[in-house]
Amino acid sequence: MEYKAVYKMPKALSGKLFTYCPGCHHGIVHRLIAEVIDELGIRERTIVVAPVGCSVFAYEFFELDGTVAPHGRALAVATGMKRARPDLVVFTYQGDGDLAAIGTAETIHAANRGERVTTIFINNAIYGMTGGQMAPTTLLGMKTTTSPYGRTAEREGYPIHVCEVLKELKGVAYLARTKVNTPKDVINTRKHIKKAFLAQLKDVGFGLVEVLSTCPTNWGMDPLQAGRWVDESMVKEYPLGVFVDKVGEEK
Known about the structure:
37% of the residues lie in helices and 18% in strands. With 251 residues, it is α/β, with parallel strands linked by helices. Helix 1 (26-40) crosses helix 8 and helix 4 packs across helix 5 (104-113). The longest helix has 19 residues, at 183-201. It starts with 25 loop residues before the first helix and ends in a 6-residue tail after the last strand. The relative contact order is 0.15.
C-alpha cells in the first residue's frame, strides 16, 4: 500500500508541544505563520520578536532566531533589527494589551514610518496571561476582572479598533482583520499572513494582520462556546476584511 503524507509539521516550528490553554487560538496562528515562512523559503533569515503576555512563549515554539521585548516595545525592537539588517525578515507577535495599550505609540509610529516589518496581532479582548483584566479591545458590557460590572463607554471609554486607526497611515502596505474559529477562516488567515510577509519582502511597507482570537480560560467558557462568541460578539464589534493592500496579486 502506498502512503501519501497529507500533513507535515512545518520546519519553522520547533516541535515542542504547545502549552497554551485548551481552545486558545495561539497554536493555530503559530502553525499558519510557520507554514508561510516555509512556503516563502525564508526560515534561515527570519527573526521573531515576542513581547510579554501569553505570546512571550512564541520563541519556544518557532524554530527561528528570536528575542523578547519589554511590554509594548516589540515594534521598537523590530525596527532596530530591520534597520540594522535589512536583509533579514523580522516579525512581531503581539497581543491586544501589548500592541494597543503600552505599545500604542510604537505601533502607530512604526506603521506610519512604513517600517519593513510584519506584525501578527492577536486580539482576544482581554489580558490573558495576567488574570483577565480589561484590555483596550474589551467590548462594551464585557465583564473582566477589572470591569466586573461590564465595560462602559462613560467609565472606561470605547474599544480601540486598531485596523481602522492604522488604515489612514500612508506607511501601511497590508492590513487585514481575520479569525481562525472555522476551517474556512483558517485558510483565509493563512493568505492574509502570507501577504503581510510579502509586503516586507517586496519592500512595500508595514504589514499587520489582526486575528480575532479566544481566551476560554478568562472568558469563563469552554472552547466551543468561546469559538461561537467570536462570531456572535467580536465580529460585530470588529468587522473582518482587508483594509489596505498595496502588495498586489499573490503569486
